[in-house]
Amino acid sequence: MPIKALPTPSERAARGKDARTRAPRGAHADYEPASERTDPVEVIERQSRTRLPELVPIRYQRMMESPFRFYRGAAAIMAADLARTPTSGIDVQLCGDAHLLNFRLLASPERRLMFDINDFDETLPGPWEWDVKRLATSLVIAGRGNDFTVDERRRVVTDMVGAYRLWMRRFAAMTNLDVWYSHADADELARQFADLLGRRGARRLSRATTRARSRDQLRAFNKLTRVVDGERRFVSDPPLLVPVSELVAGTEHALLIGELASIVDRYAATLSTDRRSLLAQYRLVDFARKVVGVGSVGTRCWVALLLGRDGDDPLLLQVKEAGTSVLADHLPGSEYDNQGERVVAGQRLMQATSDIFLGWQRVDALDGKRDFYLRQLQDWKGVAVAEDMVPEGLALFGRACAGTLARAHARSGDRIAIAAYLGTGEGFDRAIARFAEAYADQNEADHGALVEAARTGRVTAAST
Hints:
By secondary structure, this protein is of the alpha+beta class. The chain is 50% helix and 15% strand.
């Protein structure tokens, strides 16, 4: 086997510095909507055509609730806008939807509470700047929703970007294995920010970690299921949770159950042998259709109930449709033909530790060829409440997100080149703060366009 020649750290740093000519750091401040920019409502409507029509009004209703909720569902709109912004030419594995609520507390396989990125539906290789800009803009939108001043929002964003820059410099100095083993343990984060949190902040963080640990399989099991004729079944809570038995009847019911069971059975081949053995110790009991998130509403999402040793040994799996990434129209295509595999591969690359039941499968049956990825429905998940944050709290949260994002990018991209591009000054930090304010204006205008579309009857939103 021939020895592979790798560029030296000096050569990689030179590449990063040279990229400043291609895209000066100050140029990232600029955002102007393109003269031929596609109508944002049209972008949303185009996505809706591939979704379950009876659920699309729920998506519109959720996106109309606030500019921040709109932003969560508007990744496709922003992707098209980001494609027209300067980039350094240094690619990483992108999250693709790195807004602040996609960073949360998660359980590791070793039952440690970690802080990591959660959602990878849009993951694809691309410019690292896109994730940074989406995260920064989400902080500004959240700050506006909480009536922060312009200066307060600017400090939140520059703190976040500065933390990303400093963490990338740290990762650039690490060995490959040290970067790979790096992770954000919740207890370590609490110690790291102890002086800044103060007593009140420390108490709130402690409560958040306690809540996250309580959001486990048994809690979801007791909430979402009940005993019917001696067997556990999903409860009915239409349209958000609908058992398969209520969706279709007769032959169609049998076909749908068989198709879903086949997905779970065949997906086991995408797991490692030890986890495949663990999955084999459970039996399938029931399925239901579930509405999740904001941007994902209307995609086909199922939950599967499996039982192990007895009726009090549940496993809840989410079977979520994986479509083409919203980034795909603006970047080279994925190396994976199966979109579920694309999501899983991106998640495994970017996360420090991933769900032990994370896998994928394809189905070609009742309503065409569709790809899915599977993971546990709930496993110690803790989500930030942006509406409750004061400027200092949002700044701390942004810094935690920045370190996590930098680590994810360092695992998949050239961390030395990115660190060299960013440098030691605050020019890039200030540029992203300006961009984020400008794009938050754009987001508010786009949100207003959807509200107007619903008022005029162009789109139909569910009633609140």
